[in-house]
Amino acid sequence: MSDTLLYEGKAKKIFSTDDPEIVRISYKNDTTAFNGEKFEQLEGKGQLNNEITSFFFNYLEEHGISSHFVRKISETEQLVRRVEIVPLEVVTRNIVAGSLSKRLGWEEGRKLPKPIVEFYYKDDELGDPLLADVHVQTLELATTFELEKLRRQALEINQHLLELLEPLGLLLVDFKLEFGREASGSFLLADEISPDTCRFWDMETNEKLDKDRFRRDLGGVTAAYAEVYRRLNSNN
Ligand code: TMP
Predict the structure, then answer these.
(1) For ligand 1, is residue 100 a contact (CB within 6 Å)?
(2) What is the pLDDT of residue 74?
(3) 236 C-alpha to center of ligand 1: Å?
(4) Domains, the chain, with CATH or none
(5) To the nearest 10°, the Cα dihedral for 67, 231, 41, 220?
(6) Does the global pTM surpass 0.85?
(7) How do residues 44-59 score in pLDDT, each as one tens digit?
(8) How does pLDDT run across 107-143, given as a tens digit for each residue?
(9) CA dist., res. 188 & res. 150, Å (int)
(10) Span from the CA of 176 to the centroid of ligand 1 (angstroms)
(11) Mutate to test the pocket of ligand 1, among 108, 176, 216 (most ligand atoms within 8 A of CB)
(12) Are 12 and 192 in contact (CB under 8 A)?
């Protein structure tokens, strides 16, 4: 198997394979926040994010939503279709938390009148700023038509995830998606869906079961990720 490191991000490494259309993702234990300013190695985090992401992408596929995901090949690795990641973070929110709480001055935990979708520019030097549609178009990241499609798909994914998570006692507060462009030019869901990129709260206690435990020094980070994994696997 050819094995060239193509890209190393904060939480994952991407390697080539013998098939030019397929790459191998290796999930790292590295955990960062605030643009990499805060950093720690958390034993077992890579494995949990690989397992949880594989679970979500399989689940979405079963519900008619394709992604770059091909299959999990080891505890920490998966094969995915090779795409050009669009530097756009598509954030969907059901409940106020994090940066939205600061932006609106609304308290964390308040339910939004309806789910909202926001776009952020994936650019560490700029600190991933929020983008209005006109900025997305000016940067030529997506057309108006594509933005509308991304919004619709994000809301559809939100609906599927809410239906999956509610019976497991998990509140999906918000989550971030990334998309890649295929050779044909069309958008394909990519990257990961894990406690690194979502906010999950226990429905009874509001306990945080995601990366906010790390961002806010709450401790028990991997235990929380393991709890999400346990619940996802509890009904099969
Ligand atoms: P925010 O409230 O900090 O804007 O985060 C919204 C959601 O996006 C939350 O589920 C965490 C996720 N997120 C990432 O996946 N990567 C990031 O770099 C940031 C800032 C947020």
Answers:
(1) yes
(2) 98
(3) 30
(4) 5-81 (3.30.200.20), 84-220 (3.30.470.20)
(5) 150
(6) yes
(7) 999 999 999 999 999 9
(8) 999 999 999 999 999 999 999 999 999 999 999 999 9
(9) 10
(10) 6
(11) 176
(12) yes
Tokens of 125: 């030097």
State which ligand 1 atom lies nearest to the alpha carbon of 174.
10
Quote the DSSP letter at residue 67. Answer: B
Please give the distance, rounded to the nearest whole angstrom, from the Cα atom of residue 199 to the centre of ligand 1.
8
Residue with tokens 């994952």: 12
The answer, yes or no, to whether residue 236 has pLDDT greater than 90, is no
pLDDT tens, position by position, 169-183: 999 999 999 999 998
Biggest CA pair distance of the chain: 52
Return the SS3 of 34: coil
- Expressed in angstroms and rounded, the spacing between residue 65 Cα and the centre of ligand 1 is 22
The reply to whether ligand 1 has any atom less than 6 angstroms from the CB of 175 is yes
- The sign of the CA dihedral 137, 64, 96, 178 is negative
Q: How many CA atoms lie within 13 A of 40 on its CB side?
A: 14
Long-range contacts of 102-111 (CB under 8 A, 24+ apart): 103/130, 109/206
Write down the pLDDT at residue 183. Answer: 86
